[in-house]
Amino acid sequence: MQEKKLTRQKISFLENPATWDDSRAVVMGIPLDSTSSYRAGSRFAPEEIRTVFEVLEDYSLQLKANLAESYVYDLGDMLIKGDGVWQNLNRAEKLIASIVNQNKIPVLIGGDHSITYAPVSALLSSGYEDLVVLQFDAHLDLRPSYLEEKYSHASVIYRLLERGVKEIYQMGIRSATAQELDLARAKTNYYPHRVFAPLKKILADIEQKPVYITLDIDVVDPGFAPGTGTPEPGGMSSASLYRVFNYIKNLNIVGFDLVEVNPAYDHSQVTSILAAKIIREALIILGSKC
Which of 68, 111, 170, 276 could potentially form a cystine with 30 if both were Cys, beta carbons 3.0 to 4.6 Å apart? Predict the structure, then answer.
């Protein structure tokens, strides 16, 4: 790994002694939020999420498994430079490719949703040509560009289509433009307001394929997760979100990200704690050697 491009931060409750060599899942923060279009601040999420891990137990009642028994390594955060969104995404892609090419699963903490382009592109370049993207989100993110930025968080799924992803499933959607809806009907599988019914339906179709999961925290109703840049009422509860992991745990997940947590609007830290618990569930699944 190119350590000079990373800062080291310890996840406080990763008590397992996994080294880089024996790790299966690798955590990396990408504190990039320069495309945030309403409330910036998600660049502080990787640090905040690590901090609030201290309030969690390492055992998951939902998964009936212990994080301490998973093989997880924390690389720290990528160093963000001020030379543009694309340049930072390109650097992130190279770092993630080095993780993937050593047969490890990247687990990424954003940052805004623009960061998802980097891991998906890295996986495509590493031979996952039939990659499926499973998106949990309030928004379609299918604008060709937004505020004159091609690699905006509002354009990330459009860019993934352009990059060559052929199967994209969009769950929990409840906000879009008319143009985005037209594109979704033509190019993706999108499910307004729904998560569990379509998820059950598609599992058999995607279980033999490599799956990348991107989870925008605004898929959760802002009553449960107020600390996000573009809150959208009418979402799922935090308890419902935990249930998702029982559906996806047997998929061939080759990458995972959690994006759009904004600590600046999360004064009670409930969103960051929810995010930490989501990351814990993902690490238990992806860090297992079973």
Answer: 111
In this predicted model, what pLDDT tens digit does every residue of 19-48 receive, in sequence order? Answer: 889 999 999 999 998 777 677 889 999 999
SS3 259: strand
- Give pLDDT tens digits for 79-109: 998 888 999 999 999 999 999 999 999 999 9
Q: Which contacts (CB < 8 Å, 24+ apart) does range 16-23 have?
A: 16/67, 16/68, 16/69, 16/70, 16/71, 16/72, 18/70, 18/71, 18/72, 18/73, 18/287, 19/73, 20/73, 22/71, 23/71, 23/72, 23/73, 23/104, 23/287
- How big is the CA angle at 245 (ends 243 and 251), to the nearest 5 degrees? 140
Peptide bond into 287 cis (omega under 30): no
**Contact criterion met (CB below 8 Å) for 113 and 156:** yes
How many whole angstroms separate alpha carbon 170 and alpha carbon 29?
23
Contact 34, 251 (CB under 8 A): no
Distance, in Å, from the CA atom of 286 to the CA atom of 249, rounded to the nearest integer, reads 8
**Overall number of domains in the chain:** 1
Full residue range of the structural domain in which residue 178 is found = 3-286
Helix axes 196-206, 238-248, angle to 10 degrees: 20
Paired tokens of 150 = 């091609």
Q: What is the CATH number of the domain that holds 155?
A: 3.40.800.10
CA-to-CA dists, residue 220 to 48, 234, 239, angstroms: 19, 8, 10
245 φ, ψ (degrees, to nearest 5): -65, -25
Please state, in angstroms and rounded to a whole number, the distance separating the CA atoms of residues 144 and 141. Answer: 9
Which are the contacts of 247, defined by CB distance < 8 A and separation ≥ 6?
196, 199, 200, 203
Mapped to the 3 state alphabet, what secondary structure does 116-167 carry?
Answer: HHHHHHHHHHCCCCCCEEEEECCECCCCCCECCECCCCCCHHHHHHHHCCCE
